[in-house]
Amino acid sequence: MPDTSALSRRADATGRPPGPGSVPSRSRLWLEFVNTDAAAQSPGGDLLRDFDALVSWLNAQAALDEERSAGIRRRALLQPAAAAATLVDARRVRAAMRVLAERGFTTERVRDDAVIEINRVLGRSAGTRRLDRHPDGGYARSFVPTGDAFAGLMIPIVESAAESLATEELGRVRRCADARCYRVFVDATKNGLRRWCDMGTCGNRAKAARHRAKERPLGVRAHRVERSAEHR
């Protein structure tokens, strides 16, 4: 039975999902986090292969600054079991976020489950939120946990997902139309018709496949004409 929730009812007469009031950002941290899993990175494998890789990824995404990254790595050496448990939890969050990305717009139960997971992460960590200036002159919000430093690592991820939910952006979230690709993305085009995670790879591969499909019947007919001429 189709979902008749408020989100789904807003689809327009063409069947395309609605966009939010303005065209969304081209990138969301939670979607980039989903794209670290083994499915999206095949054949390269899971980008979060160990705890250090998780910290490096968060640092590269500006979700952790250099000082906090160094401190968390030092703590991981002193508390390896806690670091290992944090990695397991990060993968759990990522799995929940993939389901949200792929099915959240059409399935109310998926959205409800994602909210439970988001609130689980948000509720277990106390801390302060800051606005920091970057060396390039820009600004970014950050969350600095107090107490258990490991507990706050997923805060930026789930807050990013929460923003997509709160702004009704899920209608713009897509999984790549290439059946072999598991990457997810925000469709930031004005018409909301983007299908590929990257036009230079998956998009071009699809165009090439369509071109070959169009050429094939012509080639078959030409071959038959040649064989017919040989037997005259």
Q: How would you sum up this structure, described in words?
A:
- This protein is mainly alpha-helical and 232 residues long.
- The chain folds into 2 domains: 6-196, Jann2411-like fold; 198-232.
- Helices cover 52% and strands 9% of the residues.
- It has 9 helices and 4 strands.
- It has helices spanning 6-9, 29-34, 38-41, 51-60, 66-78, 80-103, 108-123, 155-166, 199-230; strands at residues 126-133, 139-146, 173-175, 184-186.
- The strands form 2 sheets. Strands 1-2 form a two-stranded antiparallel ribbon. It has a two-stranded antiparallel ribbon with strand order 3-4.
- Helix 6 (80-103) runs antiparallel to helix 7 (108-123).
- The longest helix is centred in the C-terminal third of the chain and has 32 residues, at 199-230.
- The termini are far apart.
Broad shape: globular
Question: How many E strands?
Answer: 4
In percent terms, what proportion of residues is strand? Answer: 5-15%
What gyration radius follows from the Cα positions, in whole Å?
23 Å
Query: Structural class of the secondary structure composition?
Result: mainly alpha
Main sheet attributes: strand count, strand direction, barrel closure: 2 strands, antiparallel
Query: What proportion of the residues is helical, as a percent range?
Result: 40-55%
CATH architecture annotation of the largest domain: Orthogonal Bundle
- H-E string: HHHHHHHEEHEEH
Predict the CATH topology of the largest domain.
Answer: Jann2411-like fold
The CATH superfamily of the largest domain is Jann2411-like domain
Low-confidence stretches: 1-22
Major sheet: arrangement of strands: 1-2
**How many H/I helical runs?**
9
What's the overall average pLDDT, rounded? Answer: 81
What is the class of the largest domain in the CATH system? Answer: Mainly Alpha
Distance between the termini: 61 Å
The number of domains is 2
